[in-house]
Amino acid sequence: MQRDELADFLRRRREAMRPAEVGIADGPRRRTAGLRREEVAALAGMSVDYVVRLEQGRSSQPSVQLLGALARALRLSEDERDHLFHLAGQQPPPADGAARLARAGLIRMLDLLGDTPALVLSDLGEILAQNRAAVLLTGDHTGFSGDRRYLAFRWFTDPAARVVCPPEEQEHHARQLVADLRAAAGRRTGDSTVAGLVDRLRAASADFRRLWAEHEVAVRRADRKTFLHPQVGRLRMDCETLVTPDQGQQLLVLTPADAEARERLELLRVIGIEEFPTGAPGPTPR
């Protein structure tokens, strides 16, 4: 771990950030160059004290998860992210596979979308980043580990993941998840990450085995889904998916499909983050 170099890099990246890039108003009384330490801490989900110690070269070695959070908070490019990991004495996440971080350009697009819910997903259905509007609508999906990182795994193994989807849409939703995973498996033939996920799903869920055997393939670009929110009720949303050129990551943008959904989304912004039912991770957006 190169503490002094790490401290200098983090400090300079923080000072180079414009508050507007992360949705923070840049008022006339603002004297700090770039972001404040407490703003970086809030964006990364860590304590201000730890950010201070990192910038002063007094911290313990950051974990891979913490470094990923810092990379997202500071909107680092892939090269900058890898440099951050090297300075901290950690191995950067592979360019391919389930451990990837959301691309910096997609993170910036999340910020620019503002009050429009949007998420960044891997091609295997792991939510890599969400803007605040998406968290309000769907709950926070970024804190899962193991196979529970994947939307399909939670859907087929945890009943709580399905209670926020209307019963009449659940079969259609399940078929979409399987068809999308089938398409990813076809693109990534021989990839042990994909093959292992499919094998574990087949072992864990008879419903998944049934749908997988039908060999439906579909990469979703646009769709319409109903979200059941515990505070504001049903929201009918149009889902538009933008895919990176290598098809490795996707930006999912959710817009109200009708006036009622628009009003309820506005109400949700006023209410703020509320708890979802026990065990439920929030409405599954895919």
Strand content: 5-15%
Tell me, briefly, the overall form: globular
Radius of gyration from the alpha-carbon trace, in angstroms = 20 Å
What is the topology, as strand order, of the major beta sheet? 2-1-5-4-3
Helicity, as a percent range = 40-55%
First-to-last CA distance? 39 Å
What's the total count of β strands? 5
Whole-number total of structural domains: 2
The CATH architecture category of the largest domain equals 2-Layer Sandwich
- The CATH class designation of the largest domain is Alpha Beta
Pick out the low-confidence regions.
Answer: 275-286
Counting helices, strands and paired strands, the structural category is alpha+beta
Write a structural description.
The protein contains twelve helices and five strands. The chain has 286 residues and is of the alpha+beta class. It has two domains: 85 residues, Orthogonal Bundle (434 Repressor (Amino-terminal Domain)); 167 residues, Beta-Lactamase. A five-stranded antiparallel beta sheet has the order 2-1-5-4-3, with helices on both faces. The longest helix has 21 residues. The radius of gyration is 20 Å and the shape is globular. It starts with a helix and ends in a 15-residue tail after the last helix.
